[in-house]
């Protein structure tokens, strides 16, 4: 049974906003949805203005009608709380709900995701609305989940947030002395004497735009880092207030909010601990590689201990907010949907069912477009996928990814690396993680994305790219893991600071020195276009972005720099530690290097590819009590052939295919296979 909707089949549907149309249209929507095999709608995402026209009035007439209609048509509901955009009267009467931007500018009414998370008004009225909804619709047994607000995010720098920040710091540090110590305010004489001295880090205080790069920077990493943690926590508190309000009336219904994958602003690993299940919105840009989308799915699956998630939104055809809104090509929506399932999705939903006629999303794709007809390419594709999903039923539900290798991802580290002043603005956390993920993806090796809280024992290989921040105690976890036979990999500029962004003295990589058996003396940041090189496995590979200049202290060099004054110094090392090994890649290299490196490493550690495929064809596996499922996904626009490495039954075509059979994937084609044991 799916952890999500407690359903025995995969649900299929999307955001539905009938409040934008007259009732005659609703009946037509119901007919078309049934035709497309849609069985779930997310309703009430942005209706606060209608539900609460003033301070004391709540009006559920329209929502009642929508809820009745949907129930009468046999559809499940994911019920949203509408708190992602506040009503105009509230902004007029209670301006504390309006956000203040980083430059100190107080906003007026407008936009969405616009409420200050520390506004007393927001914290009063948002949970109140959620509670009223839960009380009113508690007996609708077709509600399968709650959807709080919408895509939480952004920042606020108002006075209420400033006060709340001081409280948050007081709670974390206890005394002003501890704050001074952890922010290292002795630097530039920034010592705080009183809690009131502490102001939010923004363009009025510690932040500025760097003239050379146009990038935002901070002069005090400690306070900026804590602000990110604070604002993430502030919004999480808002989520929790609504969560608790809903649970009073519907304690058994699971609650989520739609996340945005690699969204830097919120520590989703912390958020997931308060959510009943993870759901997220997948809008790849046309330039995003299939590996990037796969990574985002894996990141989302990893938030809640590798449990399945819900694909809450994707466009059936096109977005409207990118500079060039390229149509998804025929078959592409289907391919991306099955890719989501292959990586852990237990439900597939669209934004949105019917295309609006006004405002900024009127050209956003929808199942039913402005023509209102079923004989469109998009509708046909949605209906065809609906039929496939119906036929697959519950087969994939609760399926796990059999990963033996993991990549560590840590929001604190992400913030800290990119707030770092030096050594290089080219050090980008997400890109560095992608370097490794992309290489594993190309080898069809399943990867779990894990947090610093997760256990490591299940993995033969753990990769922690750019582990700049090592939280106190994490070095011990890594040591224990390697001692017992694990293989650990990390990269340049790792082991530098603790969770306060304070440098560990005694030489880099700090508390990772013992495990890695090296001492990094200096870091050379190469400007764009400059390269060094190193040889590995008989090939010369580029070294760029950053070159760590290191000495061996027990480790063995696997590759040396070949140019400049540090030619002959190690670039890549391995250290035998207990029964395992720890690798340090002291520089950034190219795709070929990461693939060669991981290919060898996986071979040595017995981490297997799920299936060999030609370039551009992805193979991913999910396993559950019903069996093991191999999903073959052709991301190219050419026909491709895969030679099977096992015996399977084809779930969509109903035929069986044997080991060594050549199976053909049409362009953007998908094959869903169930393993057969002969
Ligand atoms: C987000 C939002 C939706 C809609 C879509 C458009 O994911 O949650 O309300 O705006 O983007 O792509
Ligand atoms: Zn605020």
Quick structural summary:
The chain has 678 residues and is an alpha/beta fold.
Mean pLDDT: 97
Query: Given the helix and strand composition, which structural class is it?
Result: alpha/beta
Query: Counting H and I runs of at least 4 residues, what is the number of helices?
Result: 17
The largest sheet has its strands arranged as 7-4-3-2-1-11-10-9-8
N→C terminal distance: 27 Å
Residue ranges: pLDDT <50 for 5 or more in a row?
Answer: none
Oligomeric status: single chain
Bound molecules: alpha-D-galactopyranose, zinc ion
The outline comes out as globular
* Strand residues, percent: 15-25%
Percentage of residues assigned to helices: 25-40%
Cα-atom radius of gyration? 26 Å
Major sheet summary line: 9 strands, parallel
**Based on DSSP secondary structure assignment, what is the total number of beta strands?**
29
